[in-house]
Design a protein that fits this description.
By secondary structure, this protein is an all-alpha fold. It is 59% helix and 0% strand. It has nine helices and no strands. Helix 1 packs across helix 6. It is elongated, with a radius of gyration of 27 Å.
Length: 230
Amino acid sequence: MAAAPPQVAPDIDSDEDLQRLYNWVDEIALSRPKRNISRDFADGVLFAEIVNHHFPRLVEMHNYSAANSQSQKSYNWNTLNNKVLKKIGYTIHPQDIEDVSRAAPGAIERVLKVLQDKVIQVQEGQLRYRAPVANVVPRVATSREGDEPPLAKISGRGASPTAASGRAKAERFQSEVDAELLVEKEQKINELHEVVDIMSEKIKKLEQLVRIKDAKIEAMSQKLQKYGLA
């Protein structure tokens, strides 16, 4: 069955939900200070860091660089869509990518809220995946003694039994994630080997042409010397 097309992220229902979302974001140590959330998240890097915090095996941060140009911002968001988010059952709608990358007010909050919901659903075992790494469980933030985990604070209740077993599930399925990432890297290596082989053949042919040209130049020089023209 074909995957459902991406939907535009819905509006956030209440100020309370919006404040819980901001608190959820603030619990994660990001690489840049948050001054204006619309502009700060426009290039997708901080969003990738949040996904990496909860799904550390799915995000390769070197794929995402800070950007001012619209093209690089779109590249970051599309890379997130194609390489990461689809594995947790989420695809950002193109209109949302356009709005977020242009720092439209309220756009990043809507997209972050969908991500927050996905994280909670995965943590509670409610989300089914279409991707091969369907059962990846998000990393649970380590809490200090006496503190509730961030997701428990957001939901307003203690961690469910399923959430408590998240770490055990992560260990059980970690090998599957590692295997998929290894296959992807091996494919990239094989592709690079093929490129190297092709370039090596081209270099050999060029060297052969150079030798032929040198031989012709040498023969011409000898003829010129023979007739006293050199």
